[in-house]
Design brief:
Number of domains: 1
Structural class: mainly alpha
Shape: rod-shaped
Number of strands: 0
Number of helices: 7
Largest sheet: none
Order of helices and strands: HHHHHHH
Length: 208
């Protein structure tokens, strides 16, 4: 799912860069660059559609955060269970629990990485959509105060055209991009890593 929003972000960024002549990240610069003819018809609707995508991204971020929290709880519980098994002298059980703990820790590390990457993509998309919304609001205020200026070239590609194209491309993505928790990737733990972990636990538990 993060890949989908990354692609959306890339398409919006490249479309603005090609149209405006730079990857505009400054609100004032964007306002100056977006003349009425560059904005095009239906821009407000296209920006609203992008805002809906942001809401989806935020919903997915909540799913990723919940997954991280679940894995954190699992890692903590397995850690305590492994120590308890060792303390009781149940070495086979402790071995199995340490292996599960290491696998859960690997899943947690990957889930945390996914969450960080998704947050970065989402924040960049939010920044661009906020700037576009500000430009649309300025244009609406100016249009109400002054007569509309004629469009020099109605066939010229506009920001609205770019965003419409982006929306259509993203709409064609596979259904697999729907909101769902990512499948847990296969993880493994080496026998040496397990034994090293068990030894550290033994040493810690036998300290006075």
């Amino acid at each position: 799912m993060t890949d989908l929003f990354d692609k959306l972000n890339m398409l919006v960024r490249s479309g603005l860069r090609d149209l405006i002549g730079g990857d505009v990240l400054d609100v004032e610069a964007l306002r100056r660059a977006l003349t009425p003819e560059r904005m095009g018809k239906g821009l407000a609707a296209e920006v609203t559609a992008l805002r809906q995508r942001i809401n989806q991204a935020l919903d997915y971020e909540d799913e990723l955060k919940a997954r991280v929290e679940t894995l954190q709880a699992e890692v903590s519980a397995l850690d305590g269970d492994a120590d308890a098994a060792l303390a009781r002298g149940e070495h086979d059980a402790a071995h199995a629990l340490v292996e599960k703990h290491q696998r859960a820790q690997q899943r947690l590390t990957m889930a945390e990485s996914d969450l960080r990457a998704h947050r970065m993509v989402t924040q960049e998309l939010i920044q661009r959509v906020n700037m576009l919304e500000a430009a649309v609001a300025d244009h609406a205020a100016n249009a109400a105060a002054t007569p509309p200026t004629p469009v020099a070239d109605p066939e010229r590609t506009s920001v609205a055209d770019v965003l419409r194209s982006v929306r259509e491309q993203i709409a064609g993505e596979p259904k697999a991009a729907s909101l769902s928790s990512p499948a847990a990737p296969p993880v493994s733990s080496s026998p040496k890593a397990i034994e090293d972990d068990l030894e550290r636990r033994r040493q810690r538990l036998t300290k006075p």
